[in-house]
């Protein structure tokens, strides 16, 4: 019984170790997808600026609060051609 317990704890540690090594890659993939989505909605310049401001911890939070208070984005979505 003790051997099974030790083996299970060993396997759990290895699994957690592998998962923590993959977290930065998953975070980078999420950021890349968010950047692509923002650039498609806002255009190249406005999309990159909006993503850059959101990536900065304090500045991004202040920008988001100001946008909520204002009721509109600092970098509006580009107009759709119909």
What does it look like?
The chain is built from three helices and no strands. The protein has one domain. The protein is elongated and about 65 Å long.
Secondary structure blueprint with pairings:
Elements: H1 2-42, H2 44-55, H3 57-70
Helices and strands, in order, run as HHH
Low-confidence stretches: none
Total number of beta strands: 0
Helix count, DSSP H or I runs of 4 or more residues: 3
pLDDT averaged over residues = 89
Biggest beta sheet attributes: none
Helix content: over 70%
Strand content: under 5%
Radius of gyration based on Cα positions: 21 Å
What overall geometry do the principal axes of the alpha carbons give? elongated
Total discrete domains: 1
* Distance linking N and C termini: 70 Å
Q: Quick summary of this structure?
A:
By secondary structure, the protein is mainly alpha-helical. It is 82% helix and 0% strand.
